[in-house]
Amino acid sequence: MRVIVDDAKSVVEVWLMKTEKDTSVKDIIAKYKPLKYTVAIFRSGTQNLASSTSALLANNI
Q1: pLDDT of the chain, 61 residues: tens digit per residue
Q2: How distant, in Å, are the alpha carbons of 26, 56, 58, 61 from that of 40?
Q3: β partners of residue 5
Q4: pLDDT confidence of residue 3
Q5: Which of 8, 43, 49, 58 has most Cβ atoms within 10 angstroms of its Cβ?
Q6: CA 42 to each of CA 8, 17, 61: distance values in angstroms, whole numbers, following the listed order
Q7: Do the beta carbons of residue 54 and residue 29 sit within 8 Å?
Q8: Cα 34 off chain centre by
């Protein structure tokens, strides 16, 4: 797990590999929620990144 805290933007990024459990994510959310930070959780996947991104963009245009 990789955690990046941007105090200037009040954002916390949590990067999880597909093999990692997200049990400690709850602790991170509990820590930063009272501080009014946005916690973004990113999980790796198994699908093709290019085709998934293309489908996402096409759906949101």
Answers
A1: 999 999 999 999 999 988 887 778 999 999 999 999 999 999 888 888 899 899 989 998 8
A2: 12, 18, 23, 23
A3: 12
A4: 95
A5: 43
A6: 20, 9, 22
A7: no
A8: 18
